[in-house]
Amino acid sequence: MAAERTPPRVGLIGISGYGRIYLQMAREYHRRGELRLAAAVVINPQEEAAAVAELQAAGCEIFADYETMLARHRGQLDLCLIPTGIHWHTRMTRAALAAGANVLVEKPLAGSTAEVESIRAAAAQAGKFVAVGFQDFHEAATIWLKQELVRGVIGEVKSVRFLGLWPRARSYFKRNNWAGKLAVDGVPVLDSPLNNAFAHFVNLSLFFASPRAAESVAAKVESAELYRAHDIESFDTAVVRLKTPDGVEVWLGATHACKETREPEIVISGTRGSIVWRHERDVNLVDEHGEAQRREVSDSFVARHAMLTAVLQRLTDPTALICGPE
User: Fold this and answer.
1) 121-149: per-residue pLDDT in tens?
2) N or C: which end of the chain has fewer CB within 10 A?
3) Which long-range contacts (CB under 8 A, 24 or more apart) does 40-44 make?
4) What's the pTM value of the predicted model, to 2 decimals?
5) Helix, strand or coil for residue 15?
């Protein structure tokens, strides 16, 4: 009889704020024996006393900072989860790679392309992978839609248009020390609707615009209108026009300075049909003959679990699809 596989050892940096979502996922997978949550960084243990007690009871070692955790578990962690502020992503990701861990880091990967390139180089040097937390990339209807696009169900893709309106109060930009900032302590942040809250849909737009099965596409900015209504350094409203090397026109529209909500929608137009993808609702595909297909789009909870499952699979299967820095 084959020996039972030891669950991968996982470290988690941060359990507050958005880190709570990663913590809950890690707890669930830990309870099912799909991973072992071996170590966690908690910078506010008094505020998170109940969670700390639960983690310690489950055999998870608690640390006050990520450097100490990675030094203590150097070469022992299979995966490090990094759901922290944007300006921490690069330094934490590179440190985790150097300590021998693969990485799942929350989106956006970094605040500059130079930092992204440094992460790619560090991953190559360490022989490890970096996955970025774009959960919609892993959602079942998204995968189906991409397959349909690649096989030419609506012909050649000519345009991809994204629009999303999510109102944000002043408190949204006061919730931490980097919201709405261009940089923190000299580290690029470039927080904005397109680089943060709506980054999922920018990523999907470029993924759908690519003719290749497992890749997004690089696109050149043709024009960008950036505005702010809130008292912030960055912009809270944007209309950006891009073009891909294959001539696909990509239009991105997003704002946090609005009264009404309009959930993200991506419209894909081709030479033989069109597709409408709607966040947490559905995908509607109509071909040149008027034939329609519809698929439900899972909510973010389901999509995040699909993402973590794919990342854990990648630990043993190099063909498992993840959303990497590329």
Assistant:
1) 999 999 999 999 999 999 999 999 999 99
2) N
3) 40/11, 40/12, 40/13, 40/15, 40/69, 41/11, 41/12, 41/13, 41/14, 41/15, 41/65, 41/66, 41/69, 42/14, 42/15, 42/16, 43/14, 43/16, 44/16
4) 0.95
5) coil
